[in-house]
Recover the amino acids of this structure.
């Protein structure tokens, strides 16, 4: 018997893999629904994503999962033009994020000195430092502060909602760190790495248009996964403690006000770090201490829907990311109905404003009215929004996104040490080996395979 703890995409992917292999398992999920951060809802003809908006098919496991669930035909890829039209907010002005050399040379984001720092990068000395370096220190050392402020900070904010001065370069932008380590330069190294990646992707048969959703949002992926394992899911089952003796793990959990136990030989934990830290306190103190050091930042997805004619900003775009220095209350804006037109009725627009993160965590403590008010004022100025909204909606993730910060290397060593001593205990969750949905699918599938 295998116990899977947590029914987010990591736990569900592990469960699906076990189901296919005919293994006996139980999945314990604290909430009355599975999916964790992946939730979508339909309101007044709009499709709202409460967590992730898109999934990237960048590994074999994600592609295989979609195929095996029979979802390939249902994938919706973004409108190509809008999807590649991205912006950065600089000094209050919405500037196109250049894609390609010609646009780069025309872009206001690129000064002469920026171009010079890119051209000089391959000749910069590589660092002999082996310690975990912050992303900000790494980029400043190789490419200079302007690239850090105008490109890297907005970009990583869009993924991790984190602070590049605290984030670990190795664990958040591993490819460019590897480019320096192996090839002595980000520019030279990335060209080689991307070429190799392209060949690898072609071998696996990954499609060119690689981000997707479904007609009713990413919830469709969760529903399809759930259908295959519904007999094995225990709802409202909140794990409270794990004990380990001989070859067995005893999982204590609460369900419907009752205390229950499950004795099992194999465990896959797909819980957030803070939850596993609490459960492991009894039998793996080192692991528990390390996991409790992983910082989670709050994240909020705030949706606004309105008549398209009420927005003066007329570009068909993917989104706008903001720099640290901008005095705005958001990290980024996604123009959902531009890149996924099916998410709004004709003549209407839907945008998602992502707030919080390491930059502005205080907004998470504000009331809905205060958040709407603050964002309304800003969006009316920035996008020229006028008139009434059809819909305003807030989703709050108090401990939204785990941060791979400087010092994560020690945490990872402690996790590896624990896993080395507990061969029948696996960890698959977004605080270990990647936070994207496709990382979680991959790590959930691999965790299950490694128990067979
Ligand atoms: C606002 C936001 C936007 C994002 N955007 C994107 C995006 O566009 N693309 C992308 O790839 N990624 C995105 N991400 C990241 C991605 O969504 C997550 O990293 C991923 O979904 C996490 O999956 P998980 O299964 O590891 O964890 P979770 O989804 O957190 O699931 C953990 C599960 O464990 C359960 N649980 C917790 N404690 C217990 C307990 N004691 N007992 C039993 N069960 C318990 C929870 O209820 C939950 O169901 C975004 C994240 C957020 C918050």
């Amino acid at each position: 018997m295998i116990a899977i703890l947590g029914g987010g995409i990591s736990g569900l992917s592990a469960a699906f893999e076990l189901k296919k292999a005919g293994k006996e398992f139980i999945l314990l999920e604290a909430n009355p629904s599975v999916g964790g951060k992946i939730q979508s809802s339909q309101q007044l003809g709009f499709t709202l994503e409460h967590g992730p908006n898109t999934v990237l098919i960048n590994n074999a496991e994600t592609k295989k999962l979609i195929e095996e669930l029979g979802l390939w035909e249902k994938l919706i890829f973004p409108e190509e033009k809008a999807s590649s039209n991205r912006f950065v907010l600089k000094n209050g002005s919405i500037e196109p994020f250049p894609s390609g050399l010609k646009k780069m040379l025309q872009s206001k984001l690129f000064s002469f000195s920026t171009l010079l720092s890119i051209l000089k990068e391959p000749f910069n000395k590589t660092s002999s430092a082996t310690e975990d370096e912050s992303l900000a220190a790494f980029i400043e050392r190789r490419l200079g502060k302007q690239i850090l402020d105008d490109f890297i900070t907005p970009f990583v904010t869009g993924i991790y909602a984190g602070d590049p001065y605290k984030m670990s370069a190795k664990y958040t932008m591993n490819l460019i760190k590897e480019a320096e380590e192996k090839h002595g330069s980000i520019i030279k190294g990335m060209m080689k790495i991307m070429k190799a990646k392209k060949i690898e992707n072609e071998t696996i048969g990954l499609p060119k248009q690689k981000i997707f959703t479904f007609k009713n949002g990413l919830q469709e992926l969760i529903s399809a996964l759930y259908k295959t394992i519904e007999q094995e899911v225990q709802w409202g089952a909140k794990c409270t403690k794990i004990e380990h003796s001989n070859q067995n793990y005893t999982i204590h959990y609460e369900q419907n006000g009752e205390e229950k136990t499950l004795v099992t030989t194999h465990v896959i934990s797909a819980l957030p770090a803070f939850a596993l830290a609490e459960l492991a306190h009894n039998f793996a103190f080192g692991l528990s201490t390390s996991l409790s050091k992983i910082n989670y930042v709050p994240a909020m997805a705030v949706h606004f829907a309105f008549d398209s004619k009420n927005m003066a900003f007329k570009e068909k775009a993917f989104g706008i990311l903001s720099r640290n220095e901008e005095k705005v209350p958001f990290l980024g804006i996604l123009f959902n109905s531009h890149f996924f037109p099916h998410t709004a009725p004709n003549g209407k627009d839907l945008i998602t404003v992502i707030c919080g993160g390491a930059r502005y965590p205080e907004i998470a403590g504000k009331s809905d009215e205060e958040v709407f008010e603050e964002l309304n004022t800003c969006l009316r100025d920035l996008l020229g929004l006028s008139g009434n909204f059809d819909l305003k909606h807030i989703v709050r993730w108090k401990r939204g996104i785990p941060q791979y910060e400087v010092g994560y290397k020690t945490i990872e060593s402690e996790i590896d040490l624990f896993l080395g001593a507990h061969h029948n205990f696996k960890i698959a969750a977004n605080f270990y080996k990647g936070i994207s949905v496709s990382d979680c699918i991959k790590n959930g599938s691999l965790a299950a395979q490694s128990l067979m």
Remarks:
- The domain at 296-402 is CATH 3.90.660.20 (Polyamine Oxidase; Chain A, domain 2).
